[in-house]
Design a protein that fits this description.
337 residues, alpha/beta, TIM Barrel, 8-stranded parallel beta barrel, 4-stranded antiparallel β-sheet, 10 helices, binds phosphoenolpyruvate, binds manganese (II) ion
């Protein structure tokens, strides 16, 4: 449930309510909005059923949250959440483009891509250090060496870096080097891992599982936020359907649906959604038009030789051309690139 406070509620009244909730063994989450402050009460609501919270001084109203997800729901927080990654804000007017190779394959290639995507207007550098590969015999990523390359590329370009975490044992390493932590589609439902992210003081990029519903994605985000980390960006990266022309089927309508249901920012990954270089630009255009807050695009200096996801990677000049074209789409829907 959420407790909506009166505009005139005092700090003392607020503290009294928070103490009452905690004394019942429940966890209060305070959200200070532009228009009002609300307290989310998370936990088994039976405990408060007989407590007349609506009669407490300073309380305007008590409303149940009907959705199964609570803290990430629009019901709990009306205003859009802005997630800040080393100064880059996700969820405002500017479309935030994250670009870089699927895997960091070495220092030189990463510095080359980083320089190109930065010049072309990307705001974040992506690159995998720990790769979730379908085959155990495929390239698994360079681990800490890749993280060091990402840190060097950040130094050189100023771009914050986002990289995937798969194993909770790697948290100290990722914490040391990354600015944003990606949870890939395969781990979207790894609830033990998601709980660990509460203590991580880094924003999270949570990708939708390829077999996950929108509600399941939001429940996974709820795991992270309820564990103590409110900085979550959601990513639509395509789902598995009967269609085989594309690697996955981009479910673009999830963007406005999620925005109705949740206050969290949403970005689209056209690379994994299609698996095809020629479809990246059309999908980016559609993603911006439908309201995405950002894009995650794979770029490789020489896609033909990429150690992972070459067929869906753009070459640097293709990426730069695409970015020029996307600016007018952004303008047409009141955004900027
Ligand atoms: C990736 O971003 O490189 C990746 C593996 O993505 P996903 O988890 O969406 O497949
Ligand atoms: Mn990839």
């Amino acid at each position: 449930m959420i407790i909506v406070l009166k505009a005139t509620a005092t700090e003392e009244q607020k503290r009294h309510i928070l103490e009452k909730i905690e004394s019942l063994g429940l966890r209060p989450h305070v959200s200070v909005g532009v228009k009002r402050t609300v307290i989310g009460v998370i936990g088994p609501e039976d405990a408060v059923r007989n407590v007349p919270l609506a009669a407490f001084p300073g309380v305007e109203t008590v409303v149940p949250i009907l959705q199964p997800f609570k803290l990430v729901s629009r019901e709990f927080k009306e205003d859009d959440t802005i997630v800040t990654v080393r100064g880059v804000e996700i969820g405002r007017k500017k479309i935030v483009v994250m670009a870089g190779p699927c895997s960091v394959e070495g220092r030189d290639m990463l510095l080359e891509v980083a320089t190109h995507v930065s010049r072309a207007g990307a705001s974040l550098l992506r690159g995998g250090a720990f790769k979730p590969r379908t085959s155990p015999y495929s390239f698994q990523g360079l681990g800490e060496n890749a993280l060091k390359c990402l840190a060097e590329a950040r130094e050189k370009t100023g771009l914050p870096v986002v990289t995937e975490l798969m194993d909770p044992r790697d948290i100290p390493l990722i914490e040391k080097y990354a600015d944003m932590v990606q949870i890939g589609m395969r781990n979207m439902s790894n609830f033990a891992l998601l709980r660990e992210l509460g203590a991580l003081k880094k924003p999270i990029l949570l990708k939708r599982g390829n077999m996950a519903t929108i509600n399941e994605l939001l429940m996974s985000a709820e795991y992270i936020v309820s564990s103590g980390n409110p900085n979550v960006v959601l990513c639509e990266r395509g789902i598995r359907t009967f269609e085989t022309q594309t690697r996955n089927t981009p479910d673009l309508i999830s963007v406005p649906v999620i925005k109705q249901l949740s206050h969290l920012p949403v970005i689209v990954d056209p690379s994994h959604a299609t698996g095809r270089r020629d479809l990246i630009e059309p999908l980016c255009r559609a993603a911006i038009a439908i309201g995405a807050d950002g894009l995650l695009v794979e770029v490789h200096p020489d896609p033909e030789t990429a150690m992972s996801d070459g067929p869906q990677s753009l070459a640097p000049d293709q990426f730069a051309d695409m970015m020029r074209g996307l600016a007018s789409v952004a303008r047409a829907v009141g955004r900027e690139l």
